[in-house]
Amino acid sequence: MPRGRYSLHDPHDHTPLAHEHFQCAPGPSGWRYVSQLTTPAGDHTGSVDLTLDDLGRPIRLELHAHSWQVRGAALDGVTWVRTDPTGTEANEGNVPAHAFTGTSPAFLIAITRLLRLTPSSSATRVRLVAFTDPVLAPRTVDQSWALVKREAHATDNAPLTVDEYQVTALDTGEQHAVHIAGDVVLAAPGIELEDLESPPSAFT
């Protein structure tokens, strides 16, 4: 069960945004990721709880950020309910999309589990609902994912397989790289793995 800490920063000016203290593991239903977010000063700001099924579909999502809350799942595309900090207004949304995304590294792992790309696969288009900080506002985005390289790196234990993905935002053409080992993000725009207490889980 990997457990550790990511640091999140603005990918453009590198302003520190948060620390994400996480743990994740494959389970009976597929894969689950839970985390708590704090400011660089240590104040609690939110949480992530994401469960995938064996096919990589989000069967349960719960996000908290600055007293806003989102609960969602794969249902007729993806469906979610977003509640304001007072708890008096709850707005439901539904989009014919494949999955969710956001600032948490959990979503990058989830997309790779859904797409199951190989180095010989062609780039695959995916439609996502992104929940943007600080109020978890939903926005539909289209991306293209390609697995461009898979390398095994020697470690003190077993070899560590690292996948390098190229992700393209289809509205702007902007591209970036994402490096993933098992169920841990090693590097991505705005994400840095600062601490890892145990090796990544290997998906079968």
UniProtKB/TrEMBL annotation:
UniProt name for this protein: Glycolipid-binding domain-containing protein
Species classification: Bacteria, Bacillati, Actinomycetota, Actinomycetes, Kitasatosporales
